[in-house]
Amino acid sequence: MPTDPKLCTTSGESPDKVRAEQTNPTGQHKAYLILCDEEREKGFVKPYRELYTHNVCGTETRMSRAIAETYARDPYFYGATFCVHCNAHKPLTEFTWSDGEPMYPGDPAWRQPEPA
Ligand SMILES: [Zn+2]
């Protein structure tokens, strides 16, 4: 299967290599998959947000700009995110954005994206 041309990584390495190395059960991964610059520059369908709360422990975590932009461009891109307190990746169902919207697109309180 050819690599999706929209797919890049925070380290500049190949998406396949980064995905294969995301095996550590705790701690942040060395690198993350993101949408490439050209794809993110096409416009956001959700507001740009980088701060979110883990509902289980109540701790706020801030994500890096490229990952936050990837969420804003494609809110379905990730299925899990990192909590600095739990020091682990947890399902999006456990998180809320700082503006109060759930991060999980399947949540009834989640707001439908605007066309970019
Ligand atoms: Zn937590």
Residues in helices, as a percent range:
10-25%
Radius of gyration: 14 Å
Estimate nothing, just give the exact number of structural domains: 1
* Beta-strand percentage range: 15-25%
Q: Which shape, going by the Cα principal axes?
A: globular
In round numbers, the mean pLDDT is 96
Distance between termini?
28 Å
Q: If strands are numbered along the chain, what order do they take across the biggest sheet?
A: 4-3-7
Main β sheet profile: 3 strands, antiparallel
Oligomer: single chain
Query: Which small molecules are bound?
Result: zinc ion
How would you spell out the order of helices and strands? EHEHEEHEEE
> What class do helices, strands and sheet pairing give?
alpha+beta
Q: How many extended strands? A: 7
Poorly predicted runs: none
Q: How many helical stretches?
A: 3
Per-chain topology:
Blueprint: E1 7-9, H1 15-20, E2 33-35, H2 37-40, E3 51-54, E4 60-62, H3 65-73, E5 80-83, E6 88-91, E7 95-97
Antiparallel strand pairs: 1-2, 3-4, 3-7, 5-6
The chain binds zinc ion (ZN).
